[in-house]
Structures are given as structure tokens and as C-alpha cells.
Design a protein that fits this description.
3-stranded antiparallel beta sheet; binds zinc ion; 82 residues; two-stranded antiparallel sheet; globular
């Protein structure tokens, strides 16, 4: 993926966590167990935790998650169909 700011190739990496990774509108912290309809679950926490593919540009220090790609959630990885 090319960086939308500078156009250079971005590095593919990941963010992982022991608990689910959830995007939530606003910046007020809530109990994570109260998931609302507006929340976006990026990756559920399974045996090895949650993990989401993230592209990073070191020059611009920007990160991008492609939420439209089902393979961004590394817990959706299926070795037989990938
Ligand atoms: Zn960039």
C-alpha cells in the first residue's frame, strides 16, 4: 500500500493485543464490555489475542488499517483459503 500523504510504499506490520481491538467514536473511555452498534471490532481476542494488519509510513508517521479487507483481521487468517 502506498502512503496517501507522500506516495511511498508503506511497511506492512500489525498491532496486537491480549484483549479485543475496537474502534470507538469519541475519546471518552468506557468499559470495553459495553460494545455499542457504532463500535467497530477490528479483531476479536481469541487464544493468541487480537491482531490487526497495519500499514506504516516511517516518513510521515501515519498508520492505515484497511477495514474493508477481511484479511486485515489476522484472526480471520485461513491457511486453506488464503
Ligand atoms: Zn508517507
Amino acid at each position: 500500500m502506498d502512503c496517501p500523504y507522500c506516495g511511498k510504499e508503506m511497511e506492512e506490520g500489525m498491532i496486537q493485543n491480549r484483549y479485543p481491538l475496537i474502534w470507538r467514536k469519541g475519546t471518552n473511555r468506557h468499559e470495553i464490555k459495553w460494545v455499542s452498534k457504532e463500535d467497530i471490532t477490528l479483531s476479536r481476542s481469541i487464544v493468541n489475542g487480537a491482531a490487526i494488519k497495519v500499514f506504516y509510513c516511517r516518513d510521515c508517521k501515519k498508520m492505515i488499517i484497511d477495514c474493508a479487507d477481511p484479511h486485515s483481521d489476522l484472526n480471520n487468517y485461513d491457511p486453506y483459503h488464503y
